[in-house]
Amino acid sequence: MTLNARNREARDRQDFQQTGVARVCQGRVPATMANRDELGKTVLTPGELIDTALHPDESTEPATGQGRFVWTETGYDRLTERDVTDIASMLQACSEGETELLFAQADQTRKRFVGDSVHIRGIIEFSNYCMRNCLYCGLRRDNHKLRRYRMTPDEILAASENGIRRGYRTIVLQSGEDLHYSTSDIARIVEGIKGLGDVAVTLSVGERARSEYATMKSAGADRFLLKHETADAELYRRLHPGRSLEMRIECLQNLKSLGFQVGSGFIVGLPGQDISTIARDIALLKLLDVDMAGIGPFIPHPDTPIALYPAGDVAMTLKALVVTRLALPHANLPVTTALATLRPDGRKLALSCGGNVIMPNITPAKYRKLYEIYPDSASLKDPEDGGIGEIALMLETMGRRISQTKGDSFRRKRR
């Protein structure tokens, strides 16, 4: 790295350290998300982050009991004035009554703000090559036991067409960070999918330059998924060698400024994580005002450096989903495959406590088993169409239904 590049990197890091986002991530200050002065220091404009007119009635104070913060019907509004400690208190709800109350109120909030329809997104995992070396991921660069693959553009378009024919209104293109596919390659694929029908296209291809994101947006991409993974800057550095949380957040801010519907999220149960880390994760999602948040448990992969650590706790994952629903009432919250992998009834559980999106895997069968972020994924048992018919039947038993729309951001519709 040149001297000028090092100086620029140091200056960018120093600038980031002064932002409200960084101060929340590093745990140096409470995450008072309604503090417009603090938010004004971030790249995002304060008006994009906080909608003070959402629920102006401040007359109902949250109830408290047994020294623990308990959510009330209007609690989602109060969260913007609560710091990480209060979020952590909700995550620590232990008694059966406290947990049931949180789950019920998250389900009510989901019903009130995003309705009973469940959005179905078809995921195509088109490459398992990755230039990164994340300690928890089976796709990591140094996993030489994994047989690698790349789908051709024609294969991607064929899988997309099959998904659209089956009823999917959103196609999600996901891969490792694989620069084999240039920005123009991805743009042409997006244009091809958009030409197949009235569908949304979501990209999940990792960190790229803002100009590259702009090209993808111009080609017709509607959404972008980029999980922040953990809001603890030091933990992020340890788990992602050579990478930084600052860069991750810069990418999210670039995507947002370009007009993408932005999804982020985190992993529950990472080695070194604690309750306050998860609380900061939720605070960061609120601060970034994401359109979608994916929350799933850590599942160890045998060919990674942290293979011997235990899997993330299902109960804590559900609590994190619940509190995120209360914090972001208009967000789309998917049922993660990792949760369904640890619990056969994971989809139903997540849908009953705030979830409103399912993302079936429609990758061709010959590739699906090779996209092994973690072993024994629940998606391996699904038919090539992702089991959309079985999902419809499951939702019917819950009094829910598959949405007939593309499932655009509820927050943007509200505005």
Describe this structure in words.
The chain is of the alpha/beta class and 415 residues long. It has a domain at 115-267 and 285-314 and 329-414: TIM Barrel (Alpha-Beta Barrel), CATH 3.20.20. It is built from 19 helices and eleven strands. The chain has helices at residues 3-17, 20-25, 36-39, 46-49, 75-78, 84-91, 96-114, 153-166, 183-194, 210-218, 233-239, 245-257, 275-288, 314-327, 337-342, 346-351, 365-368, 388-397, 410-414; strands at residues 64-65, 68-69, 117-127, 170-175, 200-204, 223-225, 261-268, 292-297, 334-335, 357-358, 401-402. The strands form two sheets. Strands 3, 4, 5, 6, 7, 8, 9, 10 and 11 form a nine-stranded parallel sheet that branches. Helix 8 runs parallel beside helix 9. It is globular. The N and C termini lie far apart (44 Å).
Q: Which stretches are poorly predicted, pLDDT < 50 over at least 5 residues?
A: 15-20, 26-81
Query: Mean of the pLDDT scores?
Result: 83
Rg is 20 Å
Which CATH architecture of one domain?
Alpha-Beta Barrel
CATH class of one domain: Alpha Beta
Element string (H = helix, E = strand): HHHHEEHHHEHEHEHEHHEHEHEHHEHHEH
Shape assignment? globular
Q: Remind me, CATH topology of one domain?
A: TIM Barrel
Task: State which percent range the strand residues make up.
Answer: 5-15%
Given the helix and strand composition, which structural class is it? alpha/beta
Largest sheet: 9 strands, parallel
The helix fraction, in percent, is 40-55%
Quick one: how many beta strands? 11
Count of helical segments? 19
Question: Span from first to last CA?
Answer: 44 Å
CATH superfamily of one domain: Aldolase class I
